[in-house]
Amino acid sequence: MSLPWGGEGHLLAGGYRLLARAGSGGMAVVWRATDLVLDREVAVKLLTAEGAAEADVVQRLKAEAQTIARLKHPHITGTTFGQLPRGQDRLGGPGP
């Protein structure tokens, strides 16, 4: 599994610092992270290099975020969808 970003302590664009790896699957890794703007702990799901290279994986990640964002419950935190993999300005393929 190839990771296109650094590990623990890495600062992501958008103001998130990776704290510790929380879990992983075939195409993504979930990290505990700090939202430096809002000063709170969050979970960040990052695609592996292999996952980011597959348009269908990126589309599934977006669909997953949309589904989670629709859930309303006192024990479910809010969800945001950040950035697409480097080199993509839209889902489904590379930018111009």
Detailed description of the structure:
One of its GO terms (molecular function) is protein kinase activity. Residues 77-96 are annotated as: Disordered. This is Protein kinase domain-containing protein. Residues 16-96 form the Protein kinase domain. The chain is α+β, with helices and mostly antiparallel strands and 96 residues long. Helix content is 21%, strand content 28%. The protein has two helices and four strands; from the N terminus they run ββββαα. The protein has helices at 49-52, 55-70; strands at 11-12, 16-24, 28-35, 40-47. It is globular and about 35 Å long.
**Main sheet attributes: strand count, strand direction, barrel closure:** 4 strands, antiparallel
The CATH superfamily of the domain at 11-70 appears as Phosphorylase Kinase, domain 1
Radius of gyration: 13 Å
* SS strand fraction: 25-35%
CATH topology of the domain at 11-70: Phosphorylase Kinase, domain 1
Q: Based on helices, strands and strand pairing, what is the structural class?
A: alpha+beta
Q: Biggest sheet, strands in spatial order?
A: 1-2-3-4
Shape: globular
Q: Which stretches of 5+ consecutive residues score pLDDT under 50?
A: 87-96
Mean pLDDT: 78
GO molecular function, one term: protein kinase activity
Region (Disordered): 77-96
InterPro entries: Kinase-like_dom_sf, Prot_kinase_dom
Domain Protein kinase: 16-96
